[in-house]
Amino acid sequence: MKFNEMQQKAVIHGTGPCQVLAGPGSGKTLTIVNRIRYLIEECGVRPEEILVVTFTRYAAAEMKTRLRTLIGRRNIPVTAGTFHGIYYGILKWAYKIGSQNILSEEEKYQILKSVISGQELEIFDEEDFLRDIAEEIGKIKNNRLSPDEFVSAKVNADAFREIYRAYEEKRKSLRKIDFDDMLVVCYELFASRPDILALWQKKFKFILVDEFQDINRVQYDVIRMLAVPENNLYVVGDDDQAIYGFRGADSELMFQFREDYPDAEQIVLGTNYRSTGNIVKNSLKVISHNKRRFQKELNAVKDSGKCLHVQELKDPVEEAGYVADAIEKQMESGAAAEDMAVLFRIHTDARPLVEELIERHIPFQMKEHLPNIYNHFAAKDILAYFRLALGKRERRDFLQVMNRPKRYIGRDSLAGAEVSFEEIRKFYCDKDWMLDRIDQFEWDVKMLAKMAPYAGIQYIRKRIGYDDFIKDYAYTHNVERQDLNEILAELEESARPYTTIEEWFRHIEEYTETLRVKERQKSMEQEGVRLMTLHAAKGLEFDTVWLIEVNEGQIPYKKAKTDQQTEEERRLFYVGMTRAREQLTVCYVKTKNGKASDPSRFVDELLEDS
Ligand SMILES: Nc1ncnc2c1ncn2[C@@H]1O[C@H](COP(=O)(O)OP(=O)(O)OP(=O)(O)O)[C@@H](O)[C@H]1O
């Protein structure tokens, strides 16, 4: 492979700091690997003196493999790893800590779980809550903030401080550090022990950082300390692909780098080898709306290729059908399923498509865990009503819904594992007002039995009064009513195609089982169309890509309120677009869960006249 002029310049950069700005598909990995070869073979640098930092272990392993192939030797003792891996190595050496001192993710969640159970918090979805709180704790550590100055998006200031304090106390009592502590402890070690720092500075004479736009404050501070005194700090990144601001990465550090190293060489890799001219042109059209970015050109080596396609669809179900049709067509013409990807903003956007692919037996692979909507408490309530409608009389179904909405039926009125309305009536025989309620309950269940699932859900919500229960629930549990209504609307949509309750139940069973199997097989290499969030698609490439639900509220995501957050959403969209080699389709829907939905502003930007 022949380098272009800028790649060549980047490979043979001499000493001192250097920032390589590289657009998508411009050969970042290629450049880094060849620079390492150049340092070793042409400049006589010992491999042991080279440190390469990547953002995933996978990327580090990939880098080493490519290096071995390039140099043609099996053992090249360059240190390549993630920030965590490298800083852990340093701490291991300094403090003799081992894996027994590292808090696993599972332990971390266990601690957080026990901490929050001791507090009076109203939590709607525990899994979500724990993940967000863990992320916030990480943000504090990664940016070296104080919990007192941090504003949590999940709980009030006092509750957050208490969670943080209790978590730290428990962690310390176990004599363990978590993943984020590793960086902080390493920083403190270097700051307090110049002698130890000097040893590491001497060891790593040349430092290369990949995906520099994803660095956070504490990672940056430590790497700068390490690079002293020669400052052979070589950073490669794309500010337009900075998508981890939400978890503490600070792409402003790319700009800061220039201030900290005013003499740093600046090289822009502006040739895209991955995508067609049309894909490159259109992705630039969108990203150029971001104000805070380095201006840089990106030219495609490939021809214009097929036109970018923007497709309007009625709703997510129609969209799923459209994408599934297109996948089938491609497969019929010989394309491999693995070369196709469907990307979305949040994993739950994938549900209608997953249901469609299962129905059509199209192989697919999910990169992330897709929460099963039918396990949501509101879905469980609806399904329990339907089971009663089918004549089942299990106690747990009664318990699930007998007071949703409130009917004031007590648990003690349910005798055994099987329950009958007659028994409950007997229990309340001297209370006329209760008998009326129970009669109504039974009547509603009978009515439900005659309905198709879609109409049945509406009946449960409007006539039985489940929506009133949801309103109260949202109020008393301090959760967004809108979020719960969306779950119910989504359930309605998923039930719409089925004419009988039994049919819908069969579908739910198959869907649930497929998700379970996919979850188990996650780590295995599998065939199939790739389904993943835009975040997970970073660094990957596919011949054909569909971006789905490109609607306001999805992307930019509804929680992105500030200009800064909107710009990060635009970068995410840009990352998605630039994954495609040959063909890119952007889909948006006109209605979602029965409500009108606008196409994303990014679609408007795409359709603007150039
Ligand atoms: N000079 C070159 N000649 C031919 N092909 C090249 C050249 N440089 C890079 N490529 C090819 O371009 C493709 C994209 O490169 P690479 O994956 O390294 O891009 P990247 O900069 O890491 O992209 P992204 O940031 O979007 O993930 C690869 O298939 C790579 O082999």
Automatic annotation (TrEMBL):
Pfam families reported for this sequence: UvrD-helicase, UvrD_C
Segments forming domain UvrD-like helicase ATP-binding: 1-276
Record keywords: ATP-binding, DNA-binding, Helicase, Hydrolase, Isomerase, Nucleotide-binding
UniProt: ATP binding residues: A22, G23, P24, G25, S26, G27, K28, T29
Catalytic activity, reaction form: Couples ATP hydrolysis with the unwinding of duplex DNA by translocating in the 3'-5' direction; ATP + H2O = ADP + phosphate + H(+)
Enzyme Commission identifier(s): 5.6.2.4
Record-given protein name: DNA 3'-5' helicase
